[in-house]
Write a structure and sequence with these properties.
The structure is a single chain. Strands 9-10-8-7-6-5-4-1-11 form a nine-stranded mixed beta sheet, sandwiched between helices. The longest helix is centred in the first third of the chain and has 17 residues. It is of the alpha/beta class. It is built from 14 helices and 17 strands. The chain binds iron/sulfur cluster.
Length: about 375
C-alpha cells in the first residue's frame, strides 16, 4: 500500500465537542513507548513500496516532544522511502509548541500542515475547550510559511451553539485573510460522550438549526470563491491543484495502511479497525501480537454504496460505469424517475455515466442516495 495513516492518540486537553480517540494527561514515557510501538508495527507491515501519501493525525501529533516526533517521522520515511511527488501531511495544533515542531517537520520532508483552528473568536474558542487564541493561529501560520511548507489547511467548525451567520462570516473572513490554500469546514456533529452533547441533552444548548447550518455552508461557498478556493468535497475547499491527495484515497475506496489506536485501514475487500484502547494497542504492537480489533470483508453492495456516497460528496461526482466495473452492480436503470426528478429540481447533474450533485444538492446527499440503498437492499 502506498498510502499510510498514523494515529497519534494524545492531546493537551480534551476539547468539549470532540469524540476522536484521544486522551489528555499522558506522560513523556507513555508517548515514547507509543512511538516505539509505531516503529515496531511499521516494520512488521509487509508492503515495502515507497509511500505516496502519508497523513499523521490524531489526537494531536504536535503534542509529541520534538525528539519523539523526529523518531516517528524517521521511522515512517525509513520504512520504505517516499515516492516522487509524495504528499506528507501532519496535523499541528496552534495551542502546542509550534515553534519547536516546525523545524522537525521541515527537516524530515513533511510538505503539508493541517491546523485545527475551529474558530477565530476568543470567547468561542474558550467555550470549545481549545487552548489557543486567534493570535496563536496567526503566529503558527507564519511559522509554517517560514519553514517553506507551502501547503497548509485550516479547519473550522460551523453550526456551533449560538453561532449566527454574521459570527460565521467573521470567522471565515479572518481565516481567509491568512491565504490558506485549503480549508476544511465541518458542520458540528453532536457525538456521544462529549461535553457539548451532554450540555445539549441538559438543555444548555438548543438543537442545531439545520437551515442556518445550510446557509453557513452556502456562505462559505461564496466567501471562499472570492479568494480562489472552491469546494471539491462537501467539507473541503481548495485552490485548484491543492486538493488533499490523501483524502482522495479514502473517497475512491483505495487501499491504505493504518497504524495507531482505533485507526481504520483497507486492503482489497478487507477493512479493519485497530485496537482502540491506547495502552492495549501499544502493548500489542510492542509484543508483536495483532493490533487488529475487527475485520470486515466488504461485499459488492457495500462497495457500491461507499463508492456512490463518497463520489457524490465530491464535485467530480461518481462515474457509474466505473462503479459497475468495480462491483458488477448497476441499479441506475431502475432509478431513472428518481434521477430525472432530482435533475429537474436542480439538485443533480448527469454527464454521460457521471452523476454529480450541484451546489444546491450537495447538502441533500442523504435524500439523493436513499433510493440507491433501497434498491440494493431489495436484491
Ligand atoms: S479536537 Fe483535536 S485537539 Fe481537541 S481533543 Fe479532539 S483531537 Fe484533541
Amino acid at each position: 500500500m502506498t498510502s499510510l495513516y498514523v494515529h497519534v492518540p494524545y492531546c493537551e486537553q480534551k476539547c468539549f465537542y470532540c469524540a476522536f480517540n484521544s486522551k489528555a494527561g499522558s506522560g513523556y514515557d507513555d508517548r515514547a513507548r507509543f512511538v516505539d510501538a509505531v516503529t515496531a508495527e511499521l516494520h512488521r507491515r509487509r508492503d515495502r513500496r515507497p509511500l505516496d501519501t502519508i497523513y499523521i493525525g490524531g489526537g494531536t501529533p504536535s503534542v509529541l516532544e520534538p525528539n519523539l516526533l523526529d523518531r516517528l517521522l524517521h521511522a515512517i520515511a525509513d520504512r520504505a522511502g517516499l515516492a516522487d511527488g509524495y504528499e506528507w501531511t501532519v496535523e499541528v495544533n496552534p495551542g502546542t509548541a509550534v515553534e519547536a515542531v516546525m523545524p522537525v517537520l521541515a527537516a524530515r520532508g513533511v510538505n503539508r500542515v493541517s491546523m485545527g483552528v475551529q474558530s477565530m473568536d476568543p470567547r468561542r474558542l474558550k467555550e470549545m475547550g481549545r487552548l489557543h487564541g486567534p493570535s496563536d493561529v496567526v503566529e503558527a501560520v507564519r511559522l509554517v510559511r517560514s519553514h517553506d511548507i507551502r501547503r497548509f489547511n485550516l479547519d473550522l467548525i460551523y453550526g456551533q451553539p449560538d453561532q449566527s451567520l454574521a459570527d460565521w462570516n467573521e470567522d471565515l473572513q479572518t481565516v481567509l485573510a491568512l491565504n490558506p490554500e485549503h480549508l476544511s469546514l465541518y458542520c458540528l456533529q453532536y457525538e456521544e460522550g462529549t461535553v457539548w452533547t451532554e450540555r445539549r441533552r441538559k438543555g444548555v444548548y438548543d438543537s442545531q438549526d439545520e437551515d442556518l447550518a445550510a446557509d453557513m455552508f452556502h456562505r462559505a461557498v461564496a466567501a471562499t470563491a472570492v479568494k480562489g478556493l472552491r469546494w471539491y468535497e462537501v467539507s473541503n475547499f481548495s485552490v485548484p491543484g491543492h486538493e488533499s491527495r490523501h483524502n482522495g484515497v479514502y473517497w475512491r475506496n483505495e487501499d491504505y495502511e493504518a497504524v495507531g489506536p482505533g485507526a481504520y485501514g483497507r486492503e482489497g475487500s478487507v477493512r479493519w479497525k485497530e485496537i482502540e484502547d491506547i495502552k492495549a494497542w501499544t502493548s500489542a504492537a510492542l509484543d508483536g501480537s495483532t493490533v487488529r480489533m475487527e475485520e470486515e470483508v466488504l461485499g459488492p453492495v457495500e462497495d457500491y454504496l461507499d463508492l456512490l456516497t463518497s463520489g457524490l460528496r465530491t464535485r467530480e461526482g461518481v462515474d457509474l460505469e466505473i462503479v459497475h466495473r468495480k462491483t458488477g452492480l448497476d441499479v441506475s436503470d431502475s432509478l431513472q424517475s428518481h434521477l430525472k426528478s432530482s435533475m429537474e429540481s436542480g439538485l443533480l447533474e448527469r454527464d454521460g455515466s457521471i452523476l454529480r450533485l450541484t451546489d444546491s444538492g450537495i447538502l441533500l446527499l442523504d435524500e439523493i442516495v436513499l433510493p440507491f440503498y433501497e434498491a440494493l437492499d431489495r436484491r
